[in-house]
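This is your field. Have a critical look at the following sequence-structure pair:

***
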Amino acid sequence: MQPLSGIKVLDFTTLLPGPLAGLILAEAGADVTKVERPEGEEIRRYAPRWGAESIQFSLLNRGKKSVTVDLKDKAALSRIEPLIAESDVLIEQFRPGVMARLGLDYDTVRKIRPNIVYCSITGYGQHGPKAYVAGHDLNYIAETGLLSLSFGNTGKTVVPPALIADIGGGTMPTVINILLALLRRNASGEGAYIDIAMADTMFTYAWWALGLGNALGDWPGNGDAMLTGGSPRYQIFPTRDGRFVAVAALEQKFWNTLCDLVGLEERLRDDSVDPEATTGALRAIIGNRAAEEWRQVFDGQDCATNVIRTLDEAVRDPHFLERGLFDYVLENDQGKRIPAMPVPVAPQFRGDRTDAKTAPALGADDEGGTAG
């Protein structure tokens, strides 16, 4: 039995933060029903298509149900009440005040289901001067100062490779707090209202910079701190053939091994004397050989250094294959199969690896609908 078997989730969210949270709950056994407008959420229509739906929608909504409701039609809201009455969790991702205008705010919903766990996901939270400000992931990491710690330079700015605020500030806190609320409900019978602001958790990601700034008054700038490019021990260096090496040899034992492996001059090994000179020397050394040569040098060595893999290379890595990250199966309406989305749910809680699941067709679980 999966840990969330029997838990029913009503999901009003779209795009990434809420749908991924719903996916994680579904992968742990919850019964998740998406509530969509009659034309469906916009991500269904994204490119590229994979069968009838977009690949993004399919990945994020594996194993869920779908019902369609025009939330602006007051008469249609009567269709929602029976779903609320049997739900344990409700997740929404509208701007503050929207659910109240629709007649679906927490105070109204808990009259139908008193012990419901109701979670709202927004950029800046339900209150505060920025509560109604529009934004996306890049805006939230910019507004909280996280992006200022490493973004390249005026000649070549760098957009982060991950949606840190959407997933790290939206999805993960949503799942954590829903599980905490359910745990408390098991003990007390009490429901909860949870206000998730994606921007808030960005300060958690800046933990080391906050320590330096608050305790010492030494606020890190762009790329000048130990973990953002200010140290030769934590750095990215280009190879001769246009690939890159990731050096994370922070501990002295790793640093000593790395210096020996690359043949760094003795006078430059104490990087506290002239960090820029040490960094420059490493850049020249690593830039003198191809990535595959460096891979052979670093593989099997205790130096916290490796060649940066492409994503295509990484998904074929025997280590990740052995751990079963890509064993779970997503199937589309045409019977085609690909690996399902890897999620941070332990295998013993996730269910059968061989059980192919689909994303729901729009309205598949409407009264009289046919499951997709």
About this structure: The chain has a mean pLDDT of 96. The chain has 15 helices and 15 strands.
